[in-house]
Each structure stands twice: as structure tokens, then as C-alpha cells.
What we know:
Helix content: over 70%
Oligomer: single chain
Radius of gyration: 19 Å
Low-confidence stretches: none
Distance between the termini: 23 Å
Shape: globular
Number of domains: 1
Strand content: under 5%
Number of helices: 11
Structural class: mainly alpha
Amino acid sequence: MIYLLISICISSFLFVVFKLFDVFKINTLQAIIVNYFVASSLGFGLSGISVSFSDIPNQSWFLGAFLMGLLFIAVFNLMALTSQKNGLSVASVSSKMSVVIPIVFGVWIYNESVGVVKIIGIILALVAVYLTSAKENKEKFQKGSLLFPILLFIGSGFIDGGLKYLETKYVPEGGVPVFSATIFGFAFVFGLIYLVFQSIKGGFKFQFKNVLGGILLGIPNYFSIVYLLKALSTEGLESSTLFTLNNVGVVVLTTLFGLLLFKEKLIIRNWIGVVLAVISILLVGGFLAV
């Protein structure tokens, strides 16, 4: 459980970093690409394993890491497109509600337990995520852009579900650091390719502060994935439970960070969402019965 708590804290801090990007006018795309390079370098440097890069393609998880790297950068761009086409609230809810996909994976593929209490907890968690993300100002919803929220929902969910599947089926004991570093490495390469195309179109403007922002993001981003993967390998902790606790925990802690650090205002729905989130954590975690 300690790995899950660490992952929640670090993942929540990432949102603080993104908020600082907005404050200091850092180019998010460039910082994200640098972040993947930093995270990949950390993974290979701190793994404690002598890695031959020529051996990595022979690993059983190599193709999965390739696809996950592509998903990482693709989902980021989907998040940007959804924010532009449908508004920030829609993007936030589409991303966070995707927790239902790894939950279904856990119950269907791994035959994880599902009872009345857990079902109630999961439903409350989904409601809590929506209410906590809801904003007072209603952004215009464009029906023609419904494709982007749907793809964001699916992509975010498949990232969580894919990490669990690969960690369970293909990643050997002690192989998490190299596996996660390889995913970040592929995400960096795909992001770099995207940046090259952007520069050809004339939309590239380099600023050194974007590199600094990427470094600030890359360090916690690496450890958030490592500790999430470690939590997934915890004995007796089902993935359907873990992803619910992780997602709701991040929502609650991020909300508190916004309240305390950036003086963001919460409306009644947000507070109701926070309360429901806590109740859902207690239910799914088995700390409360109904």
C-alpha cells in the first residue's frame, strides 16, 4: 500500500508542475518531450542493472513498451485537442473517468472479485471524479468534436490497463525500471518526430525554460510510473481496487493542492465530490461496509 500512496502523491505533484507551466508560460509540448528523455535516462541510470541496448528488442515486453510509448505521446496530444475543441472540463473528465477500463480489465481478464460494496464504491468514485472536476463556468461543447473525448477516454484507460497487463505477463521481477525507462524512451522518440514535423511547418520556437520545465516534470514523472508498477505487483491488491484508489486519490490530493497552493475556489459540487471520493476509497479499500 505504501507504493500506491507514494504514486498518488507524486502523480498529484505533476499537476502542480503543469500549473507552474501555465504561470511561467512554458511550452507544454516541448517540456513533455524533454520530460520523456529525462525520465528514460533516469530509468536506465537508476535501474542498477547492466543493460545492453542491443538486448532490449529481444525482451518479451519490447513490443508492448513500443505501443505504450506511442500511447503516452498520443494521449497527451488528444488531451490538448480535447481541451481546445471541447473545453478543459470535458478533457479532465474524459481522462479521469477512464478508470472504468482498467477496472473492467481486472474483473474480466484476471477474475478479480466484485461485490456489492466494491461496485457501490466504484460508482461513487466515478461520480466523485466528475463532481470534483466540474467547473462553475460552462464551456461550450461542440458535438462535432465528440471524437476527441471518446479517444481520450479510451487511450487513458488502455494506458492503465496495458501497464497492468504487461507488468503481470511479461515484466520479470526487478525489470520494472528498465521496462518503464524503455516506454519513456519510445515516448521521447515519437514526441521528437512530432516536433520535427512541427518545425517543418514553421511552428517551432525553442526556449531554454522549456528544457528546465521538462527536467522538473521528468523526475517525478519517472517515479510516479515506477511506484505505480510496484503497487501493481503488490500481493493481495487487485488492480480494480488499485486503479480506483489511485485515480480518486489523485483527484482529491490535486484538488487540495489547487486549494492550498494556488487559491483555487471550489464550488458546492466540488466539495460533494471530495466527500464522495473519500467514501469511495473507504468502500473499495474494504475499510467501510454498507
